[in-house]
Design the sequence.
């Protein structure tokens, strides 16, 4: 902990790379970890297909049911991790997140790159482009005026590319950092996991995760619950 505090104090630019584990203390299940939604056997298709563009287009009802039951937690509140990260990144850095829950922004973070978009912005009809509030979308995925399908607008589904602006911003965030803190992610999903290849050779790196990520020896690995760690910062 002392080492981590010192690294943060000395850093000029801190880039956080975050995943589902930073939102689990806010009550949002980590769908890749044990007991997460990817292990559930309730659905006919594997979760990668559930969250795919193909499923959205071919089975909009199944897609909708899945995201409403498993992804939307509009009442979730930011936790200590979001709050501390917001403080630090607002002062000197940026947060690049895989999470689509908008909790970093809700915590007051101003410099956030949502690598996979989010579930709440630009929800729109695929046919006419009309925008809807997430509350309306949760109730119904059909736009009855034109029979169009409504979708979360910025969320990147399987089979869709990362928004080039987000990709570019994320790469810059990693290049600019002299301290990179990876938290709450198994770091197995590409292209997100590939971002660290862009780090400067002088950048220090810290990984905070319940399981050791097996990154190279130059990385300070803190094998602990991220909420415990950020609570002590
Ligand atoms: Zn429409």
Sequence:
């Amino acid at each position: 902990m002392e080492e981590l505090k010192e690294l943060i104090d000395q850093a000029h630019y801190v880039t956080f790379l975050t995943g589902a584990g930073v939102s689990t203390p806010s009550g949002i299940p980590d769908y890749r970890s044990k007991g997460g939604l990817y292990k559930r056997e309730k659905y006919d298709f594997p979760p990668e297909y559930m969250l795919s563009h193909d499923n959205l287009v071919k089975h909009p009802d199944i897609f909708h049911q899945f995201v409403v039951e498993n992804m939307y937690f509009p009442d979730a509140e930011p936790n200590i991790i979001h709050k501390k990260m917001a403080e630090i990144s607002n002062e000197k850095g940026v947060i690049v997140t895989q999470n689509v829950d908008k909790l970093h922004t809700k915590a007051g973070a101003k410099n956030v790159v949502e690598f996979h978009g989010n579930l709440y912005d630009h929800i729109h009809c695929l046919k006419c482009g009309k925008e809807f509030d997430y509350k309306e979308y949760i109730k119904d995925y059909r736009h009855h005026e034109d029979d169009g399908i409504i979708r979360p607008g910025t969320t990147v589904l399987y089979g869709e590319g990362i928004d080039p602006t987000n990709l570019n911003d994320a790469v810059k965030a990693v290049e600019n950092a002299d301290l990179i803190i990876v938290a709450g992610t198994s770091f197995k999903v590409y292209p997100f996991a590939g971002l660290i290849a862009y780090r400067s050779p002088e950048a220090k790196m810290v990984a905070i995760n319940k399981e050791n990520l097996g990154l190279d020896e130059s990385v300070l690995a803190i094998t602990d619950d991220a909420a415990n760690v950020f609570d002590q910062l």
Observations:
- The domain at 1-28+78-119+161-233 is CATH 3.40.50.1220 (Rossmann fold).
